[in-house]
Amino acid sequence: MKTDNGINQNLKSLNTENTKLDVLALLLHTQKSNVCKLQQKTVGSVSLEKLKKFAEAVGGEFSAQIKLPNGEIVTI
To answer: Is residue 18 part of a domain?
Structure first.
């Protein structure tokens, strides 16, 4: 994922294979209408848990890191 769009990137753009809404809804344990709404949100406007589930549902992986002032990196 490019970082120039960052948290303003729509979740739909993360779905590079255009997985059908039916499949995403099934994998996310929700309704198609909820997947449509979720895809219109930006990366920065959803919880980390939802972002992780969406990334995995479209075949990706999710990881997050925090860099502390002392330079230590914490993976969450």
So the answer is: yes
Instruction: Kindly report the pTM of this predicted structure.
Output: 0.76
| Torsion angle of C-alpha atoms 34, 36, 56, 10, degrees rounded to 10 | -130
For residue range 5-53, what is the model confidence (pLDDT) as tens digits?
578 888 888 887 778 899 999 999 999 999 999 999 998 999 999 999 9
The H-assigned helical ranges of the chain are 21-28, 32-40, 48-57
Residue 43 DSSP SS3 = helix
End-to-end CA distance of the chain: 18
Taking alpha carbons only, the member of 71, 46, 56 closest to residue 14 is 56
Separation between Cα atoms, residue 12 and residue 54, nearest integer Å:
10
Q: Which domain holds residue 69?
A: 6-75
